[in-house]
Design goal:
The chain has four helices and four strands. The chain is of the alpha+beta class and about 210 residues long. Among the domains are: about 5-105, Ribosomal protein L22/L17 (Ribosomal Protein L22, Chain A, Alpha-Beta Complex); about 105-150. The protein has a two-stranded antiparallel ribbon with strand order 1-4. Strands 2-3 form a two-stranded antiparallel ribbon.
């Protein structure tokens, strides 16, 4: 084909990997001159597959599309003073390969796909909500199980505090009483000592 491979590759990149009908629709909207040639090649490849392999056009997909360098035509452009500029008219070999794939999705199939996606999303959200509910339930059960233990601990603390207060009160009341008893005992002992000494002195005087 009398066209450079670079110009052809720009168009081939648009249709590679697409279904045949989609590729033809795209090529019809492309203004490049190479699009007209590529469109003819795509239609020819699809016709060959339908006629020779009996494959439906709806299930044909462009597997490969590439352009290779062909021979260049040498031309010259006359210039001043007898000179000539070289002109290279490049050519390319364009190849389009089609393969059988799943039929192109229709509107009904697209609707089913969307419905399935929505169903998967709802199912996923339901699972997430269920997991969140289970987590909340486990947390509530843990709080309920911890509540009696906290109450028992509080009751034990109150019991210990109640048993400690009387002991502290008794100690506070008993300390002064012991001191008074000791003081009184000391006083009696002091009073008795002089009396004993007096009796001893009187006996000594009687003896004398």
């Amino acid at each position: 084909m009398l066209m450079s491979p670079r110009k052809a590759r720009l168009v081939l990149d648009l249709v590679r990997g697409r279904y045949v009908d989609d590729a033809v629709a795209i090529l019809k909207a492309v203004p490049n001159r190479a699009a007209r040639v590529v469109e003819k090649l795509v239609n020819s490849a699809a016709a060959n597959a339908e006629a020779n392999l009996h494959i439906s056009r709806d299930s044909l997909k462009i597997k490969g599309a590439f352009a290779d360098q062909g021979p260049s035509l040498k031309r010259i452009q006359p210039r001043a003073m007898g000179r000539a500029y070289r002109i290279l008219k490049r050519t390319s070999h364009i190849t389009v390969i089609v393969e059988e794939a799943e039929p192109r999705p229709t509107v009904r199939r697209l609707a089913k796909t969307v419905t399935r996606a929505e169903a998967r999303g709802r199912r996923r959200r339901g699972e997430e909500e269920t997991q969140a509910g289970q987590k909340r339930g486990r947390a509530a059960r843990a709080v309920e199980q911890a509540a009696p233990q906290a109450e028992e601990a509080a009751a034990v603390e109150q019991t210990v505090a109640g048993a400690t207060e009387p002991e502290q009160t008794a100690q506070a009341d008993g300390a002064p009483a012991a001191g008074s008893v000791e003081t009184e005992g000391a006083g009696e002992a002091g009073a008795g000592e002089p009396a004993g000494e007096g009796e001893a002195k009187s006996e000594d005087r009687g003896d004398s």
